[in-house]
Design a protein that fits this description.
single chain; mainly alpha; 0% strand; membrane; Small integral membrane protein 15; transmembrane; transmembrane helix; coiled coil
């Protein structure tokens, strides 16, 4: 505890005697951290934008495929396609496995 108090007292004395030096030191110490933060934020935004673009492209592809299926179906009835049916079965199996883990 006394080391912390001594260090704090030293910093306060330093700030009182040489405020420009303290400010320069603080700015020099924080600059790399701010630059790293800016770079990581920029990369994160780029990743989010790329993911959103890919999701829009996938959604458009699915909508186009659904439209083609409706055009091919003479009755214009919407039925489950094999890939949709497989996804539904996978969800059911996952739910069943979770349930079995919970009760065991």
């Amino acid at each position: 505890m006394s080391d912390t108090k001594a260090w704090a007292q030293y910093v306060v004395e330093w700030a009182a005697k040489d405020p420009d030096g303290l400010l320069t030191t603080v700015i020099l110490a924080l600059t790399p951290l701010l630059l790293a933060s800016a770079l990581l934020s920029w990369k994160w935004v780029r990743m989010i934008e790329a993911r959103e673009k890919e999701q829009k492209k996938k959604q458009r592809r699915q909508e186009n495929a659904a439209a083609k299926r409706l055009k091919k179906d003479p009755k214009n009835e919407q039925t489950l396609q094999p890939e949709e049916n497989n996804l539904e079965m996978m969800r059911l199996w996952k739910d069943l496995l979770r349930f079995l883990k919970c009760i065991s």
